[in-house]
Specification:
The complex is a heterodimer of chains A (about 350) and B (about 90).
Chain A (H helix, E strand, L loop, with lengths): L2 E8 L2 E6 L8 E2 L9 E7 L4 E8 L3 E7 L7 E3 L14 E8 L2 E7 L2 E5 L7 E2 L1 H4 L17 E7 L7 E6 L2 E5 L7 E2 L20 E6 L7 E5 L2 E5 L7 E2 L9 E6 L7 E5 L16 E4 L7 E3 L17 E3 L7 E4 L5 E4 L7 E4 L5 E9 L1
Antiparallel strand pairs in A: 1-2, 1-28, 2-3, 4-5, 5-6, 6-7, 8-9, 9-10, 10-11, 12-13, 13-14, 14-15, 16-17, 17-18, 18-19, 20-21, 21-22, 22-23, 24-25, 25-26, 26-27
Chain B lengths: L1 E5 L2 H6 L6 E5 L3 H11 L3 H5 E2 L3 E2 L3 E5 L2 E2 L11 E6 L5
The chains are: A mainly beta (about 350), B alpha+beta (about 90).
Chain lengths: ~350, ~90
């Protein structure tokens, strides 16, 4: 029997919440990582280490590491640089363990790799060498020019997908030596040519459980699915109250199930539509969506939910968790059918990751 | 030539093994930071950005005067490292 923990990144530090074996009565840690802004926390189940990526406006970017479930931390940014002649890196947006290595996505968009548990980092330079960075150029979204999502193939160490706002999805099949854009069929609705090769504002990319070729993405301009590893995409926004949103999470076992949290359009505040907070679930790859709002505030809830701020656990039924831009953390232990508040009054929440530990 | 470096509490808290006041032998601010990094690996990355330059929201003063990496330090000088108000 395992305990469920929530790793929460906020504007004012990381937090670890312990839901015990029944995912109830959550305890909340003190602010961790010295109160640094933390975008993303991930768990390396092969080593038992937690990694946290963020950046301090004073002290720069860093990846923190804890080997004791958050009680103590070390940190490093050795090698997290584009060199003395390159652009400065203010923060880490994503940190993802995969196959014995750790990958970090940073601002301005780039990918770094560590093969020594986060002590030192090496730039995966081929991504920034992609010709689209010069022509037509990589342009930032509202959150900056950020590499915010890293999706490794579960078994093939050569394959990985990454997502950059507002540039799009890229994939490598040779361990990062070369990268190709994977945006066909994805709208860049804010451009004169709505279907360019790059320039899409992908907000979050997730992989379906058990099917590495089945990807989903929440984009600035819609929700999409791909059945061919991102080579082509199909709009599955029909039935949602808004095509806009940030967060997306896949079911831990059901290939066809995923959750999104639609928000009002960018020019209308990027908050819960009509102040009524709701999660939407699909159980058929986006052919249809159902609203899940039982237990969530349905009046005056003008909150946002950002790209890393939703996660699922591996329970049965699966738990679903999300955090808001105003510091509320909600959880469901019945796959979204009902919701409870897990914690309130946290700093603005940027990242939520559910893990199971012994 | 020994100089005294005064570090901010937030940096000492971040890097176990450091102390608020440390004596190092250096003739420039950059050398002082390098000596600190030899004692506590990683501290240079917290204070120095690519360029190299002192990070945007870190202020370094030598005997009360705002300094850069190449600012010389005389014997017995005091170097204050202070997070800028603009940082947060």
């Amino acid at each position: 029997m395992t305990r469920t923990l929530l790793l929460v990144g906020t504007r004012k530090g990381a937090f670890v919440l312990d839901g015990g074996r029944d995912r109830r009565g959550w305890s909340v840690s003190e602010p961790l990582c010295e109160g640094w802004p933390i975008h993303d926390l991930q768990w390396d189940s092969s080593t038992g280490s937690i990694y946290a990526g963020g950046g301090s406006s004073w002290y720069g970017p860093a990846v923190f590491r804890s080997d004791d479930l958050g009680k103590s931390w070390t940190h490093s940014s050795e090698g997290l640089t584009y060199g003395d002649d390159g652009p400065k890196i203010p923060t880490v947006w994503n940190v993802t363990p995969a196959h014995g290595s750790i990958f970090a996505g940073v601002e301005p968009a780039g990918l770094f790799r560590s093969d020594d548990g986060g002590k030192t980092w090496t730039h995966v330079s081929a991504l920034r060498d992609h010709p689209s960075r010069e022509n037509p150029g990589w342009t930032p979204g509202a959150g900056g020019l950020i590499l915010h999502t890293i999706v490794p193939h579960p078994t093939d160490t050569d394959k990985m997908w990454i997502a950059i706002s507002a540039v799009g999805t890229f994939a490598t099949e040779d361990g990062g030596t070369s990268w190709v854009a994977r945006n066909r069929g994805v709208s860049a609705c804010f451009q004169p040519d709505p279907y360019p090769e790059t320039g899409q504002c992908v907000h979050k990319l997730v992989m379906a459980a058990g099917d590495p070729d089945s990807l989903y993405q929440q984009n600035h301009c819609g929700v999409y699915r791909s059945r061919d590893g991102g080579s082509s995409w199909e709009d599955i926004s029909a039935g949602l109250p808004s095509e806009f949103g940030f967060a997306m999470a896949a079911h831990p076992r059901d290939t066809e199930a995923a959750w999104v949290i639609p928000l009002s359009h960018p020019e209308e505040g990027r908050v819960a539509p009509d102040g009524a907070l709701a999660v939407w679930r699909t159980r058929n790859r986006g052919d249809a969506w159902e609203r899940q709002d039982r237990g969530l505030p349905q009046e005056h809830a003008y909150v946002g939910v950002l790209r890393e701020a939703m996660s699922t656990d591996r329970g049965d039924p699966a738990g679903v968790y999300f955090g808001t831009s105003t510091g509320q953390l909600y959880g469901s232990t019945d796959e979204g059918a009902s919701w409870q508040m897990v914690a309130d009054h946290l700093p603005p929440i940027w990242g939520v990751q559910a893990i199971e530990v012994d | 030539m020994a100089v005294t470096v005064i570090l901010p509490r937030s940096l000492v808290s971040l890097l176990p093994g450091t102390s608020r006041s440390t004596e190092v032998v250096a003739t420039t601010v950059a050398e002082a930071i390098d000596r600190l990094d030899e004692q506590t690996p990683g501290i240079r990355n917290r204070l120095v950005d690519s360029g190299p330059t002192i990070r945007q929201h870190i202020n370094v003063f030598v005997d009360g005067e705002l300094a850069k990496l190449d600012t010389p330090v005389r014997p017995n000088a005091t170097i204050h490292v202070i997070p800028a108000v603009s940082g947060g």
